[in-house]
Design a protein that fits this description.
By secondary structure, the chain is mainly α. The protein has five helices and no strands. The longest helix is centred in the first third of the chain and has 24 residues.
């Protein structure tokens, strides 16, 4: 991996506009809603911990993908394509 790529990976990528910030929020809200379902229905134990860890990782990589995308401003139009507001709201 070249140094420019490493510099990019380990840099902060602030939301470029309110629509991108909304994308991050939608991901967090969806993961939070799923975490509540997992917490309710999965018995305590190693498997539940692994499921929550996997969800946290999915949230991380999803938000990283949004933040690091050079075309993210064109990708999200501030809409709620999965109707996540209905789940979290």
């Amino acid at each position: 991996m070249n140094q420019q790529k490493l510099d990019d990976v380990f840099s902060y990528h602030p939301p470029s506009n309110h629509m991108i910030a909304g994308s991050h929020e939608a991901i967090r809200d969806g993961c939070k809603a799923l975490s509540a379902i997992l917490n309710t229905y999965v018995p305590e134990g190693h498997e539940k911990e692994k499921a929550i860890d996997a969800l946290r990782e999915a949230m991380y990589w999803s938000n990283a993908g949004i933040a690091c995308s050079s075309i993210n401003a064109q990708t999200w139009l501030g809409e709620d394509p999965l109707n996540l507001g209905a789940i979290s709201g």
